[in-house]
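Quick one: co-fold with zinc ion.
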Amino acid sequence: MSPGNAMVVALAASVLSAQAAETPTPRQVALRCGRLIDGKSQAVAENAVVLVEGDRIKQVGPGVAVPAGAEVVDLGRSTCLPGLIDNHTHILLQGDITAADYDDQLLKQSIPYRTIQATMAARTALMNGFTAMRDLETEGAMYADVDVKTAINRGVIPGPRLFVATRALAPTGMYPLTGYSWELRVPEGVQIADGVDGVRRAVREQVKYGADWIKYYSDRRYFMRDGALHSWANYSDEEAAALVGESHRLGRKVAAHAMGREGIESALRAGADTIEHGYGLDEQLMDVMIRQGAYWCPTIFVGAYVAEGRAAAGAPIWKTMVDVARQAFGQAVRKGVKISYGTDAGGYPWTESQARELSYMVRYGMTPMQAIQSATSVAAALLDQQDSLGSLEPGRFADVIAVAGDPLRDVAELERVRFVMKGGEIVKRP
Ligand SMILES: [Zn+2]
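Sure, here it is.
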Protein backbone atom coordinates (compact mmCIF):
# COMPACT_ATOMS: atom_id res chain seq x y z
CA MET A 1 0.00 0.00 0.00
CA SER A 2 1.36 3.43 -0.91
CA PRO A 3 1.60 6.16 1.78
CA GLY A 4 -1.12 8.07 -0.05
CA ASN A 5 -3.52 5.13 0.31
CA ALA A 6 -2.71 4.79 4.01
CA MET A 7 -3.67 8.42 4.54
CA VAL A 8 -6.97 7.92 2.76
CA VAL A 9 -7.71 4.86 4.90
CA ALA A 10 -6.83 6.76 8.11
CA LEU A 11 -9.04 9.67 7.05
CA ALA A 12 -11.91 7.32 6.20
CA ALA A 13 -11.58 5.59 9.56
CA SER A 14 -11.72 8.88 11.47
CA VAL A 15 -14.82 9.97 9.50
CA LEU A 16 -16.47 6.62 10.31
CA SER A 17 -15.75 6.86 14.03
CA ALA A 18 -17.06 10.45 14.11
CA GLN A 19 -20.27 9.23 12.44
CA ALA A 20 -20.60 6.39 14.92
CA ALA A 21 -20.27 8.82 17.83
CA GLU A 22 -23.02 11.03 16.37
CA THR A 23 -25.48 8.18 15.62
CA PRO A 24 -28.11 8.43 18.37
CA THR A 25 -29.24 5.24 20.14
CA PRO A 26 -32.52 4.18 18.55
CA ARG A 27 -35.57 5.12 20.63
CA GLN A 28 -36.43 2.40 23.14
CA VAL A 29 -39.90 1.75 24.52
CA ALA A 30 -40.65 -0.85 27.20
CA LEU A 31 -44.19 -2.19 27.41
CA ARG A 32 -44.89 -3.69 30.86
CA CYS A 33 -47.62 -6.26 30.20
CA GLY A 34 -49.67 -7.93 32.98
CA ARG A 35 -50.17 -10.90 30.68
CA LEU A 36 -48.71 -11.65 27.28
CA ILE A 37 -49.94 -13.90 24.46
CA ASP A 38 -47.18 -14.14 21.85
CA GLY A 39 -49.32 -15.40 18.94
CA LYS A 40 -47.44 -18.68 18.59
CA SER A 41 -47.12 -20.59 21.85
CA GLN A 42 -49.97 -21.92 23.98
CA ALA A 43 -48.44 -20.44 27.13
CA VAL A 44 -49.41 -17.08 28.60
CA ALA A 45 -46.55 -15.13 30.20
CA GLU A 46 -47.20 -13.10 33.37
CA ASN A 47 -45.58 -9.71 34.06
CA ALA A 48 -43.67 -9.68 30.78
CA VAL A 49 -41.80 -6.82 29.15
CA VAL A 50 -41.78 -6.12 25.42
CA LEU A 51 -38.66 -4.06 24.72
CA VAL A 52 -38.99 -2.14 21.48
CA GLU A 53 -36.05 -0.52 19.70
CA GLY A 54 -36.89 1.60 16.69
CA ASP A 55 -39.59 -0.21 14.74
CA ARG A 56 -38.70 -3.73 15.94
CA ILE A 57 -39.02 -5.90 19.02
CA LYS A 58 -35.65 -6.34 20.70
CA GLN A 59 -36.53 -8.60 23.63
CA VAL A 60 -39.66 -10.19 25.10
CA GLY A 61 -40.29 -12.02 28.36
CA PRO A 62 -40.81 -11.88 32.10
CA GLY A 63 -37.11 -11.42 32.88
CA VAL A 64 -36.32 -8.58 30.45
CA ALA A 65 -34.62 -5.62 32.12
CA VAL A 66 -35.80 -2.11 31.22
CA PRO A 67 -32.78 -0.05 30.07
CA ALA A 68 -32.21 3.44 31.47
CA GLY A 69 -33.70 6.07 29.17
CA ALA A 70 -36.38 3.80 27.73
CA GLU A 71 -39.94 5.14 27.69
CA VAL A 72 -42.03 2.85 29.90
CA VAL A 73 -45.69 2.14 29.09
CA ASP A 74 -47.58 0.58 31.95
CA LEU A 75 -49.94 -2.11 30.65
CA GLY A 76 -49.68 -4.05 33.90
CA ARG A 77 -53.42 -4.57 34.14
CA SER A 78 -53.74 -5.55 30.46
CA THR A 79 -53.07 -8.49 28.15
CA CYS A 80 -50.63 -7.77 25.31
CA LEU A 81 -50.88 -9.55 21.97
CA PRO A 82 -49.42 -9.19 18.48
CA GLY A 83 -51.32 -6.75 16.25
CA LEU A 84 -54.25 -8.49 14.55
CA ILE A 85 -54.13 -9.43 10.86
CA ASP A 86 -57.23 -9.57 8.67
CA ASN A 87 -56.58 -11.41 5.42
CA HIS A 88 -59.82 -10.52 3.65
CA THR A 89 -60.94 -6.89 3.55
CA HIS A 90 -62.30 -4.31 1.10
CA ILE A 91 -61.35 -0.82 2.24
CA LEU A 92 -62.98 0.62 -0.89
CA LEU A 93 -66.38 -0.86 -0.10
CA GLN A 94 -68.80 0.37 2.58
CA GLY A 95 -71.19 -2.57 2.92
CA ASP A 96 -73.17 -4.33 0.18
CA ILE A 97 -76.02 -6.41 1.59
CA THR A 98 -78.01 -6.00 -1.62
CA ALA A 99 -77.08 -5.52 -5.26
CA ALA A 100 -78.49 -1.98 -5.01
CA ASP A 101 -76.03 -1.11 -2.20
CA TYR A 102 -73.19 -2.31 -4.39
CA ASP A 103 -74.34 -0.71 -7.63
CA ASP A 104 -74.91 2.65 -5.92
CA GLN A 105 -71.29 2.81 -4.82
CA LEU A 106 -70.00 2.11 -8.32
CA LEU A 107 -72.54 4.27 -10.17
CA LYS A 108 -72.97 7.27 -7.89
CA GLN A 109 -69.63 7.66 -6.15
CA SER A 110 -66.40 8.72 -7.81
CA ILE A 111 -63.20 6.79 -7.19
CA PRO A 112 -61.68 9.83 -5.37
CA TYR A 113 -64.70 9.95 -3.03
CA ARG A 114 -64.49 6.20 -2.39
CA THR A 115 -60.77 6.54 -1.72
CA ILE A 116 -61.39 9.21 0.90
CA GLN A 117 -63.78 6.76 2.58
CA ALA A 118 -61.12 4.03 2.27
CA THR A 119 -58.67 6.16 4.25
CA MET A 120 -61.24 6.28 7.06
CA ALA A 121 -61.70 2.51 6.87
CA ALA A 122 -57.93 2.05 7.15
CA ARG A 123 -57.80 4.36 10.17
CA THR A 124 -60.72 2.57 11.85
CA ALA A 125 -59.07 -0.82 11.32
CA LEU A 126 -55.77 0.32 12.83
CA MET A 127 -57.45 1.90 15.87
CA ASN A 128 -59.32 -1.37 16.41
CA GLY A 129 -56.02 -3.25 16.58
CA PHE A 130 -55.58 -4.47 13.00
CA THR A 131 -51.99 -3.66 12.13
CA ALA A 132 -51.90 -5.62 8.84
CA MET A 133 -54.52 -6.48 6.24
CA ARG A 134 -54.71 -8.23 2.89
CA ASP A 135 -57.17 -6.09 0.94
CA LEU A 136 -58.83 -8.36 -1.62
CA GLU A 137 -59.82 -6.08 -4.46
CA THR A 138 -61.16 -2.57 -4.93
CA GLU A 139 -64.62 -3.39 -6.37
CA GLY A 140 -64.39 -1.10 -9.35
CA ALA A 141 -62.04 1.47 -7.78
CA MET A 142 -59.14 0.47 -10.05
CA TYR A 143 -55.75 0.74 -8.31
CA ALA A 144 -56.82 3.08 -5.50
CA ASP A 145 -55.76 0.46 -2.91
CA VAL A 146 -52.15 0.87 -4.06
CA ASP A 147 -52.44 4.63 -3.44
CA VAL A 148 -53.87 4.14 0.05
CA LYS A 149 -51.06 1.69 0.81
CA THR A 150 -48.46 4.21 -0.43
CA ALA A 151 -49.99 7.00 1.67
CA ILE A 152 -49.88 4.77 4.77
CA ASN A 153 -46.29 3.69 4.12
CA ARG A 154 -45.20 7.32 3.66
CA GLY A 155 -46.91 8.36 6.92
CA VAL A 156 -49.45 10.60 5.16
CA ILE A 157 -52.39 8.80 6.82
CA PRO A 158 -52.63 6.21 9.62
CA GLY A 159 -53.47 2.65 8.65
CA PRO A 160 -52.46 -1.00 8.76
CA ARG A 161 -49.68 -2.53 6.66
CA LEU A 162 -51.54 -3.33 3.45
CA PHE A 163 -51.09 -6.23 1.06
CA VAL A 164 -53.26 -5.35 -1.91
CA ALA A 165 -54.90 -7.31 -4.73
CA THR A 166 -55.97 -4.31 -6.89
CA ARG A 167 -58.82 -5.13 -9.31
CA ALA A 168 -59.44 -8.92 -9.19
CA LEU A 169 -60.44 -10.96 -12.24
CA ALA A 170 -63.60 -12.55 -13.62
CA PRO A 171 -64.76 -13.50 -17.12
CA THR A 172 -67.27 -11.49 -19.14
CA GLY A 173 -70.73 -11.41 -17.60
CA MET A 174 -69.82 -13.19 -14.40
CA TYR A 175 -69.45 -10.33 -11.94
CA PRO A 176 -71.43 -7.13 -11.21
CA LEU A 177 -72.47 -4.74 -12.54
CA THR A 178 -74.93 -6.83 -14.55
CA GLY A 179 -78.57 -6.50 -15.54
CA TYR A 180 -78.36 -3.08 -17.20
CA SER A 181 -79.47 -2.29 -20.71
CA TRP A 182 -76.94 -3.35 -23.34
CA GLU A 183 -77.09 0.22 -24.58
CA LEU A 184 -75.34 1.44 -21.42
CA ARG A 185 -71.67 1.18 -20.54
CA VAL A 186 -71.63 0.59 -16.78
CA PRO A 187 -68.56 0.18 -14.52
CA GLU A 188 -67.16 -3.28 -13.81
CA GLY A 189 -66.55 -4.49 -10.24
CA VAL A 190 -63.46 -6.37 -11.46
CA GLN A 191 -61.09 -6.45 -14.41
CA ILE A 192 -62.86 -8.57 -17.01
CA ALA A 193 -60.44 -11.07 -18.54
CA ASP A 194 -61.21 -13.96 -20.88
CA GLY A 195 -59.11 -16.70 -22.41
CA VAL A 196 -55.62 -17.92 -21.58
CA ASP A 197 -53.91 -14.89 -23.15
CA GLY A 198 -56.42 -12.48 -21.65
CA VAL A 199 -55.94 -13.64 -18.06
CA ARG A 200 -52.16 -13.68 -18.45
CA ARG A 201 -52.16 -10.10 -19.73
CA ALA A 202 -54.48 -8.95 -16.93
CA VAL A 203 -52.24 -10.53 -14.28
CA ARG A 204 -49.21 -8.76 -15.78
CA GLU A 205 -51.03 -5.45 -15.83
CA GLN A 206 -52.12 -5.76 -12.19
CA VAL A 207 -48.60 -6.66 -11.09
CA LYS A 208 -47.25 -3.72 -13.10
CA TYR A 209 -49.49 -1.29 -11.19
CA GLY A 210 -48.74 -2.69 -7.73
CA ALA A 211 -50.70 -5.88 -6.98
CA ASP A 212 -49.12 -7.85 -4.11
CA TRP A 213 -51.69 -10.61 -4.58
CA ILE A 214 -53.91 -11.74 -7.46
CA LYS A 215 -57.56 -12.34 -6.65
CA TYR A 216 -60.09 -13.96 -8.94
CA TYR A 217 -63.68 -15.10 -8.75
CA SER A 218 -63.76 -18.85 -9.20
CA ASP A 219 -67.53 -19.27 -8.98
CA ARG A 220 -71.05 -17.84 -8.78
CA ARG A 221 -74.73 -19.07 -8.79
CA TYR A 222 -74.74 -20.98 -5.51
CA PHE A 223 -77.32 -23.73 -4.92
CA MET A 224 -77.98 -26.69 -2.63
CA ARG A 225 -78.19 -30.25 -3.98
CA ASP A 226 -78.12 -33.44 -1.88
CA GLY A 227 -77.29 -31.41 1.22
CA ALA A 228 -74.16 -29.88 -0.32
CA LEU A 229 -73.45 -26.37 -1.58
CA HIS A 230 -72.74 -26.28 -5.31
CA SER A 231 -71.88 -23.51 -7.76
CA TRP A 232 -70.94 -22.73 -11.34
CA ALA A 233 -67.25 -22.38 -11.97
CA ASN A 234 -66.40 -19.15 -13.84
CA TYR A 235 -63.23 -20.11 -15.67
CA SER A 236 -62.30 -23.12 -17.76
CA ASP A 237 -59.47 -25.23 -16.32
CA GLU A 238 -57.10 -23.86 -18.98
CA GLU A 239 -57.90 -20.25 -18.07
CA ALA A 240 -57.65 -20.84 -14.31
CA ALA A 241 -54.32 -22.67 -14.67
CA ALA A 242 -52.92 -19.84 -16.83
CA LEU A 243 -54.10 -17.23 -14.32
CA VAL A 244 -52.52 -18.97 -11.33
CA GLY A 245 -49.43 -20.03 -13.28
CA GLU A 246 -48.70 -16.49 -14.52
CA SER A 247 -49.23 -15.06 -11.01
CA HIS A 248 -46.80 -17.54 -9.50
CA ARG A 249 -44.29 -16.91 -12.27
CA LEU A 250 -44.36 -13.22 -11.30
CA GLY A 251 -43.95 -14.05 -7.61
CA ARG A 252 -47.57 -13.37 -6.61
CA LYS A 253 -49.84 -15.72 -4.70
CA VAL A 254 -53.46 -16.20 -5.66
CA ALA A 255 -56.66 -15.80 -3.65
CA ALA A 256 -59.71 -17.52 -5.13
CA HIS A 257 -63.23 -16.51 -4.22
CA ALA A 258 -64.92 -19.94 -4.13
CA MET A 259 -68.20 -20.65 -2.34
CA GLY A 260 -69.55 -23.92 -3.74
CA ARG A 261 -68.00 -27.32 -4.45
CA GLU A 262 -67.37 -26.74 -8.18
CA GLY A 263 -65.71 -23.37 -7.55
CA ILE A 264 -63.48 -24.73 -4.79
CA GLU A 265 -62.51 -27.80 -6.86
CA SER A 266 -61.68 -25.63 -9.86
CA ALA A 267 -59.52 -23.27 -7.76
CA LEU A 268 -57.64 -26.12 -6.11
CA ARG A 269 -57.04 -27.85 -9.46
CA ALA A 270 -55.53 -24.59 -10.71
CA GLY A 271 -53.27 -24.34 -7.63
CA ALA A 272 -54.81 -21.31 -5.86
CA ASP A 273 -53.07 -20.51 -2.57
CA THR A 274 -56.08 -19.39 -0.54
CA ILE A 275 -59.78 -20.26 -0.69
CA GLU A 276 -62.00 -17.31 0.20
CA HIS A 277 -65.36 -18.05 1.90
CA GLY A 278 -65.30 -21.75 0.92
CA TYR A 279 -68.64 -22.45 2.65
CA GLY A 280 -69.10 -25.58 0.53
CA LEU A 281 -65.89 -27.28 1.68
CA ASP A 282 -66.31 -30.99 2.45
CA GLU A 283 -63.86 -33.49 3.91
CA GLN A 284 -62.56 -34.57 0.53
CA LEU A 285 -61.81 -30.99 -0.53
CA MET A 286 -60.24 -30.32 2.87
CA ASP A 287 -57.86 -33.23 2.27
CA VAL A 288 -56.83 -31.62 -1.02
CA MET A 289 -56.24 -28.31 0.74
CA ILE A 290 -54.07 -29.96 3.40
CA ARG A 291 -52.09 -31.82 0.73
CA GLN A 292 -51.51 -28.62 -1.28
CA GLY A 293 -50.87 -26.42 1.76
CA ALA A 294 -53.73 -24.08 0.82
CA TYR A 295 -55.26 -21.73 3.41
CA TRP A 296 -58.93 -21.13 4.12
CA CYS A 297 -60.30 -17.65 4.89
CA PRO A 298 -63.82 -18.55 6.05
CA THR A 299 -65.38 -15.06 6.53
CA ILE A 300 -68.17 -16.45 8.71
CA PHE A 301 -69.57 -13.26 10.22
CA VAL A 302 -70.22 -11.52 6.90
CA GLY A 303 -72.30 -14.51 5.74
CA ALA A 304 -74.49 -14.27 8.83
CA TYR A 305 -74.59 -10.47 8.56
CA VAL A 306 -75.86 -10.34 4.97
CA ALA A 307 -78.06 -13.47 5.13
CA GLU A 308 -81.32 -11.82 6.28
CA GLY A 309 -81.04 -8.90 3.87
CA ARG A 310 -80.16 -11.05 0.88
CA ALA A 311 -82.92 -13.56 1.72
CA ALA A 312 -85.40 -10.68 1.89
CA ALA A 313 -84.11 -9.49 -1.50
CA GLY A 314 -84.96 -12.90 -3.02
CA ALA A 315 -81.88 -15.08 -2.33
CA PRO A 316 -82.83 -17.44 0.56
CA ILE A 317 -79.74 -19.58 -0.20
CA TRP A 318 -77.71 -17.16 1.97
CA LYS A 319 -79.56 -18.36 5.10
CA THR A 320 -78.81 -22.01 4.26
CA MET A 321 -75.17 -21.12 3.65
CA VAL A 322 -74.81 -19.95 7.26
CA ASP A 323 -75.54 -23.53 8.46
CA VAL A 324 -73.34 -25.07 5.77
CA ALA A 325 -70.44 -22.80 6.75
CA ARG A 326 -70.79 -23.69 10.45
CA GLN A 327 -70.56 -27.43 9.66
CA ALA A 328 -67.57 -26.98 7.35
CA PHE A 329 -65.75 -24.84 9.90
CA GLY A 330 -66.06 -27.44 12.68
CA GLN A 331 -64.82 -30.19 10.35
CA ALA A 332 -61.90 -28.11 9.12
CA VAL A 333 -60.77 -27.34 12.67
CA ARG A 334 -60.86 -31.04 13.56
CA LYS A 335 -58.96 -32.01 10.40
CA GLY A 336 -56.29 -29.34 10.80
CA VAL A 337 -56.91 -27.23 7.70
CA LYS A 338 -54.87 -24.01 7.89
CA ILE A 339 -57.53 -21.42 8.74
CA SER A 340 -56.59 -17.75 8.51
CA TYR A 341 -58.57 -14.89 9.95
CA GLY A 342 -60.49 -13.05 7.23
CA THR A 343 -63.62 -10.98 7.71
CA ASP A 344 -64.71 -9.47 4.37
CA ALA A 345 -64.98 -6.13 6.22
CA GLY A 346 -66.30 -3.66 3.67
CA GLY A 347 -68.73 -6.38 2.59
CA TYR A 348 -70.32 -5.19 5.85
CA PRO A 349 -69.95 -1.57 7.00
CA TRP A 350 -66.69 -0.51 8.65
CA THR A 351 -68.72 0.73 11.62
CA GLU A 352 -69.27 -2.93 12.62
CA SER A 353 -66.51 -4.50 14.70
CA GLN A 354 -63.84 -6.16 12.57
CA ALA A 355 -63.09 -8.51 15.50
CA ARG A 356 -66.62 -10.01 15.64
CA GLU A 357 -65.38 -12.93 13.51
CA LEU A 358 -63.35 -14.22 16.49
CA SER A 359 -66.47 -14.96 18.53
CA TYR A 360 -67.98 -16.85 15.59
CA MET A 361 -64.82 -18.92 15.19
CA VAL A 362 -64.96 -19.91 18.86
CA ARG A 363 -68.68 -20.63 18.72
CA TYR A 364 -68.08 -22.84 15.64
CA GLY A 365 -65.31 -24.96 17.16
CA MET A 366 -62.01 -23.17 17.78
CA THR A 367 -60.50 -22.50 21.19
CA PRO A 368 -59.94 -18.77 21.89
CA MET A 369 -56.17 -19.40 21.52
CA GLN A 370 -56.70 -21.01 18.09
CA ALA A 371 -58.83 -18.06 17.00
CA ILE A 372 -56.16 -15.59 18.20
CA GLN A 373 -53.41 -17.51 16.38
CA SER A 374 -55.49 -17.58 13.18
CA ALA A 375 -55.48 -13.76 13.36
CA THR A 376 -51.77 -13.52 14.19
CA SER A 377 -49.15 -16.18 13.39
CA VAL A 378 -51.28 -18.21 10.95
CA ALA A 379 -52.39 -15.07 9.10
CA ALA A 380 -48.76 -13.90 8.92
CA ALA A 381 -47.70 -17.25 7.43
CA LEU A 382 -50.41 -16.94 4.74
CA LEU A 383 -48.77 -13.63 3.81
CA ASP A 384 -45.26 -15.19 3.88
CA GLN A 385 -44.51 -12.58 6.57
CA GLN A 386 -43.91 -14.93 9.52
CA ASP A 387 -40.42 -13.47 10.04
CA SER A 388 -41.81 -9.93 10.33
CA LEU A 389 -45.39 -10.13 11.56
CA GLY A 390 -47.82 -12.16 13.65
CA SER A 391 -45.85 -12.88 16.82
CA LEU A 392 -44.20 -11.09 19.72
CA GLU A 393 -40.62 -12.27 19.23
CA PRO A 394 -37.26 -10.52 18.89
CA GLY A 395 -36.71 -9.18 15.35
CA ARG A 396 -40.39 -8.88 14.46
CA PHE A 397 -42.00 -5.49 13.77
CA ALA A 398 -43.23 -3.94 17.00
CA ASP A 399 -46.91 -4.32 16.15
CA VAL A 400 -48.48 -4.77 19.59
CA ILE A 401 -51.99 -4.37 20.98
CA ALA A 402 -53.44 -4.65 24.47
CA VAL A 403 -56.87 -5.37 25.93
CA ALA A 404 -58.09 -4.91 29.50
CA GLY A 405 -59.54 -8.36 30.17
CA ASP A 406 -58.58 -11.95 29.41
CA PRO A 407 -59.28 -12.78 25.74
CA LEU A 408 -58.83 -16.49 26.50
CA ARG A 409 -61.85 -16.33 28.79
CA ASP A 410 -63.86 -14.10 26.44
CA VAL A 411 -62.44 -13.64 22.95
CA ALA A 412 -64.88 -10.72 22.41
CA GLU A 413 -62.48 -8.73 24.59
CA LEU A 414 -60.59 -8.18 21.31
CA GLU A 415 -63.50 -6.01 20.15
CA ARG A 416 -62.32 -3.50 22.75
CA VAL A 417 -58.63 -2.96 21.94
CA ARG A 418 -57.27 -0.17 24.20
CA PHE A 419 -53.65 0.12 23.11
CA VAL A 420 -52.15 -0.06 19.60
CA MET A 421 -48.52 0.18 18.58
CA LYS A 422 -47.50 -0.18 14.93
CA GLY A 423 -43.83 -0.37 13.99
CA GLY A 424 -42.83 1.03 17.38
CA GLU A 425 -45.18 4.04 17.13
CA ILE A 426 -47.97 4.23 19.69
CA VAL A 427 -51.14 5.15 17.80
CA LYS A 428 -53.65 4.50 20.60
CA ARG A 429 -53.19 4.71 24.37
CA PRO A 430 -55.49 3.46 27.12
ZN1 LIG B 1 -64.63 -10.19 -0.25
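If it helps, The pocket of zinc ion is lined by residues 88, 90, 136, 344, 347 (CB under 6 Å).
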